[in-house]
Each structure stands twice: as C-alpha cells, then as structure tokens.
Design brief:
Largest sheet: 4 strands, antiparallel
Order of helices and strands: EHEEHEHH
Structural class: alpha+beta
Bound molecules: iron/sulfur cluster
Number of strands: 4
Distance between the termini: 41 Å
C-alpha cells in the first residue's frame, strides 16, 4: 500500500519593495516585555488605541506598532527623500523583512483579549497580579481547567 510522505511547505514567493512599501506605513518602537504588572498594563493601554498593535519577534523583542503612512512615500511606492532618508530606512531588507521572512516566529496582538490570553499562558504570575484590578472582564480568557 503506498504511503504518502509529508510534503514540505513551498517557499513563499518573494515580494519586492516597490510592490509592497509596508515598511513605510507604520512606526514601531521597542517596549518592555510584560515581566511586571506595570509593563503588562502598558501593553493593554497600547491595545486600547485604534491602529495600534504590539508584537514580540522571534528574538523575544517586544514592540508597539502604530499604523501611519510616511509623508515621503509617493504613490508609486518610491521614497521622495531617498538620498537623505534616515538610518532606520536604510536597514529595510526585503530578504529578511516581515513580509519575506520564511521563519514566521513573531506573535502579533491586535486586541486586549489576544494579549491577555498570551499573558495568562506565558506570564501567569503577572496575569494573576493584574487580573482583578487592571483588566476588563470581557477581555479575560476563560479560566484554565484544572485536572
Ligand atoms: S522590506 Fe519587505 S516589508 Fe519592507 S517594503 Fe520591502 S518587501 Fe515590503
Ligand atoms: S523616509 Fe522614505 S524610506 Fe523612510 S519610511 Fe519614509 S518613504 Fe519610507
């Protein structure tokens, strides 16, 4: 009887910057990991705002991200100030960026409930410290069943 072998996922097709421009449509800033109640509620505060998300990348670095298009991004996706663009813009690399990376190990939170479920699982002590005093009941994950 033939045995079907597991198939490797085909690599994602490469996206080029001029077809994308994603890097020029947000601002991301490093923040503290939610290792303390104050840091965890800061992340909740970010997530209470429109067009704001928080992510942790594969290296464990936490960032807040604000969706905001750069004023220098032209309709054809070219940069109007390319020759004098900031240092950070010069680090954009289409080979390793979020769109083309094959690793996909980052975790993005777009709503308080997504973050609280993660916090309960990965930082349970911090979660318990803020649960009653700093979270909205509707955002809390369901209690974990004890066996
Ligand atoms: S570096 Fe990646 S995410 Fe940024 S514009 Fe280029 S293809 Fe898009
Ligand atoms: S300055 Fe240019 S490269 Fe930098 S974010 Fe704005 S449009 Fe993109």
């Amino acid at each position: 009887m033939p045995v079907s072998l597991p198939m490797a996922e085909p690599p994602k097709p490469m996206v080029h910057c001029l077809d994308c421009a994603r890097c020029c449509t947000y601002v991301a800033v490093g923040i503290n990991a939610p290792t303390r109640p104050k840091h965890a509620t800061e992340i909740l505060w970010f997530l209470y705002h429109d067009k704001t998300s928080v992510y942790v990348d594969g290296d464990g670095e936490w960032c807040v991200q604000f969706e905001s298009r750069c004023r220098n991004l032209q309709p054809d996706n070219l940069c109007a100030i390319y020759g004098v663009r900031p240092h950070i813009c010069r680090t954009f690399d289409e080979n390793t960026c979020e769109v083309n990376s094959q690793e996909g190990t980052s975790h993005t939170f777009r709503a308080p409930e997504e973050f609280l479920a993660y916090l309960q699982q990965h930082y349970p002590r911090v979660y318990r410290q803020i649960e009653r005093t700093h979270t909205v009941a509707e955002h809390r994950p369901k209690p974990v069943a004890r066996g």
